[in-house]
Amino acid sequence: MLRERKYYRCLIAMLLCSHSLVAQQTISGKLIDTAATSSSMIIVGDIVLTGNKKTKDAIILREIPFKKGEEYSLDVLVKKMEEARRQLMNTALFSAAIVAAKNFEGTKINISVDVKERWYLFPVPVFRPVDRNLNQWLVEQKASLDRVNYGAKLYYNNATGRNDKLRIGLVNGYTKQLSFSYDRLYIDNKLKWGMKWAFATGKNREVNYNTINDKQVFFKDVNKHVRNFTNASVELTYRRAIKTRHSFGIGFINERVADTIIRLNPSYFKSGQNRVSFPGISYSMIYFNVDYIPYPTKGYAAQFSISKNGFNHSMNLWQLHAKGLANWPLSPKSFFSLNMYGGIKLPFKQPYFNQRFLGYGDAFLQGFEYFVTDGVAGGYLKTAFTHELFGFAIKGPKVKKSKVPQQIPIRIFGKIFGNAGYVHNPQPGDNSLPNKMLYSGGLGIDILAFYDFVIRLEWSFNSLGQNGLFLHRKTIF
């Protein structure tokens, strides 16, 4: 960040000097950046885009926080050029982006924006364990192939050049599922409103019907499917500026399980039912002001959501969730991070179907990967000190029409971390983790690789006196 700022300042200063707007001074043949103290205002001229063969110009210009004809001081323009590059990288559309001063025309400065587009079409095979994390599948389930989904998915990013995303999946194995989603970030000419459609239907021969001793308990029938589901949703999104996105959603969920599941756990659904069908409405807000979304080392992010599932006695659930992330640089290669999460489900008396809390998805405490903590309210606080150990690049295949092979950067980070969490459950049953403080800590390695792929290797210790090596795929929260 500091190197980029010096680069922008020096480049603009050289252009200013060449047009006699500020004095040029040299000491031992080195240029002194006297423009940094100049009160002269700079007018933004043309913004010239290059490298975007598929991405529409409007999508790139939407991420740039300045427009032609606007006037800024040198310091402000430098910061805005840095922010423009950061925002372009955070779209996940480009593998590289350069925002630079191009040339002067009188008192106007023209800006060049050069991007290198990623690969957007990925037809990929699917081989994915269904368990909550890799450790649970490898250790507790003995890497059983019966607990793996396999098939094929089509990922088509930037499908029309408007930063839209198409997903089609056909999966077999543990879950037989057909899924489709399309996320169009902008549907209006002013590039503020977007829409997302999603649909999934499938069935399973195995169901997690209860939690005992803080572990999921499963029932499996090899002769027939014991769970059928269908989900459909539509979201309207609004992004007035750059950093904040609002989503308003409506959906429908249909879940049915075999009678055996209800006999094993009469509270799986309410009133001993074996089927629920209900609509849902939701609102969420997400805010990003970080240097790099896939692996932030500086800045802040927040997410807030509220939803209502069902409107009758068989399904009545209000949910409120909030997440926050803050990263403070301590040196050019070190930073301190704080990660927070809190949630509540109302009313507190909920069937087992609605009680999942910690240990599912990205809401978990490090060191408690082999456990789940069900409940209706709670949260956690995570802290970490991280230092970049080293980085290198691997030569990739040559890009068409280029003599230079593509570089695949690899960065390695070391860290130490600590967690604290709590979950309230008015009906804990045969479980000991709810209703008490949980603590953990440890050290680990983060590997940041090609196309935002982040792997975490962590040695964690928890307040139960246990420790072990755990493997994760990192998300921002």
Q: Which key terms come to mind for this protein?
A:
477 residues; mainly beta; Ubiquitin-like (UB roll); 16-stranded antiparallel β-sheet; four-stranded mixed β-sheet; 5 helices; 54% strand; globular
Number of DSSP E strands: 24
Low-confidence stretches: 16-38
Q: What fraction of residues sit in β-strands? A: over 45%
Which structural class best describes the helix and strand composition?
mainly beta
Q: What's the overall average pLDDT, rounded?
A: 89
Distance between the termini: 23 Å
Strand order of the largest sheet: 7-8-9-10-11-14-15-16-17-18-19-20-21-22-23-24
By DSSP (H or I, 4+ residues per run), the number of helices equals 5
Task: Give Rg in angstroms.
Answer: 26 Å
Report the biggest beta sheet as strand number plus sense, adding barrel if it closes.
16 strands, antiparallel
Helix content: 10-25%
SSE arrangement, N to C: HEEEHEHEEEHEEEEEEEEHEEEEEEEEE
Tell me, what's the shape? globular
What this model shows, in words?
The chain is mainly beta and 477 residues long. Among the domains are: 2-117, Ubiquitin-like (UB roll) (Roll), CATH 3.10.20.310; 185-381, no CATH class. 11% of the residues lie in helices and 54% in strands. The protein has five helices and 24 strands. A 16-stranded antiparallel β-sheet has the order 7-8-9-10-11-14-15-16-17-18-19-20-21-22-23-24. Helix 1 (2-18) crosses helix 3. The two termini are 23 Å apart. The relative contact order is 0.08.
